[in-house]
Amino acid sequence: MYQKEIKDVTSTALFSAVEVGKHLYWKIGSYNVHGQVFIVSWLVIATLLILSFIGTRNLSRIPKKMQNFMEFVLEFLQDIAKNQIGEHEYRAWVPYIATIFLFILGSNWAGALIPWKLIHLPEGELAAPTNDINTTVALSLLTSIAYFYAGLSKNGIGYFLRYIEPTPVLLPINILEDFTKPLSLSFRLFGNILADELVVSVFTLLVPILIPLPVMILGLFASSIQALIFSTLSAAYIGEAMEGHGEH
């Protein structure tokens, strides 16, 4: 009996040590963080900042080249916020929606276009930050904080009336919905990006010359769609939270 208990404890300890893949860990205080995610994230952020600086350093009334492209991107992102949040409230949320969209798009494209496997690390390998569940969960939690803030700032305590509308019977379901929203956002983005990278890796191993190219192009398209879906749903949740629940 005693030996059986020891075996059970040992097997439990071994099971808890199991993880999927290898990671480059950085120790910050008492926490271990995935270093490869930070490296690629910083590169994506630096690239976005450089492009923003180049596109806005010499602004003119008649836009040319880079400025014209930047204005097109801004109008596109403004339309996302306006359509989901509303014409009167959307302006304050354009920076958040734009940041979410551009970071996810940049991360997805970085994973699809750059041959990270050529760069060898002591542990793990570089890849898109969005193929790590920690990144997608963090982005989803930011959206959750954003729509709670939007609802409370617009409707005050009356925001919580939404949990008992149209009937108090739906209170548990409405509360559960606030947990399922970030879960849905995070797992959708994580699953699609991870699956895309796995498919490209398998095709590259099997047929390393021409066949992976169409799959990579399709992956770029799918990556763009995922960034659009995440930012659109984030804007939709914020717009839903700002509806006039407190006016009833």
TrEMBL record:
Cellular compartment(s): Membrane; Plastid
GO terms assigned for molecular function: proton transmembrane transporter activity
Gene Ontology BP annotations: proton motive force-driven ATP synthesis
Pfam families registered for this protein in UniProt: ATP-synt_A
Membrane topology label: Multi-pass membrane protein
Keyword annotations of the record: ATP synthesis, CF(0), Hydrogen ion transport, Ion transport, Membrane, Plastid, Transmembrane, Transmembrane helix, Transport
Keyword Transmembrane set for record: yes
Annotated family: Belongs to the ATPase A chain family.
NCBIfam families with a match to the protein in the record: ATP_synt_6_or_A (TIGR01131)
Protein name per Swiss-Prot or TrEMBL: ATP synthase subunit a, chloroplastic
Organism: Schimmelmannia schousboei
